[in-house]
Amino acid sequence: MMRKSTYKVVKNCIYLTLLVTFSVIFLFPLFWLFTTSIKPDYQIYKIPPQWIPNPPTFAAYPRIAKLIDFPKKLTNTLIIVVSTILGTCLSCGLVAYSFSRLTWRGRDIFFIILLSTLMLPGVVTMIPIFVVFLKLGWLNTFKPLIIPSFFGNAYFIFLLRQFFMTIPFELSDSAKVDGASEFQIFYHIILPLTKPAFAVVAIFQFMASWNDFMGPLIYLNDPEKFTLGLAVYALSSGHQGSIDWSGIMAAGVIQVIPVLVIFFFTQRYFIEGITLTGIKG
Q1: Are the CB atoms for 143 and 149 separated by under 8 Å?
Q2: Which of 90, 109, 135, 144 could link 219 by a cystine bridge, Cβ 3.0 to 4.6 Å?
Q3: Which residues form the domain of 29?
């Protein structure tokens, strides 16, 4: 009995040590990002590095916010983020419902074709899609960054389909007997039961749109329409002389904070959605 108790204590200590070690490793870049943003300039270049600023200064935050026109760039970013979340949830939810709850000829074949697009690298379609948007006259607008989200995402469709298939079909059959249409079934029955799955999709899409750099870099060339990430890049790449590292780090902290806040407040839905999304079917 004593051996089992000792073994359990040792095992827990090992697990705890590993968790703390990996937590420190993963949190170190955030620590370095924040501390550098509040260091005086002369402390940034010290060798060996000075880990704790002395004295700390937050002068970089108002300076960088004014330099990149933070309210305007934040507004641009939020327009894209909110629009893509709405488009993704709407399009992927309807397509996933069709693949999971409706019976029609060729459904499984089309679903396999859909999944096969996941194996297609984005760099392969980058130039053809750019040419299409060029012909449509959408360059230097938000349309290339928003409109594609209304045509679905193969991974999110797969995720939602698997979740939809865990819902008993008897619920849909009962609603059909009462005269409900497919859209009414989707809106009044399926949608309320799949909030965790849609929360996962919304979180993933938020992080993808908020952190998107390549899309704005390709399609936007007017500084007034830049997103936060692109504005920071333009600031660092066009800087003459010494680089304002504290300002760039401050901008990085500003970009990271919303992602951390969203995750901490929605992690229950995130974990629940991932856990309940099975591989049925």
Answers
A1: no
A2: 144
A3: 2-44
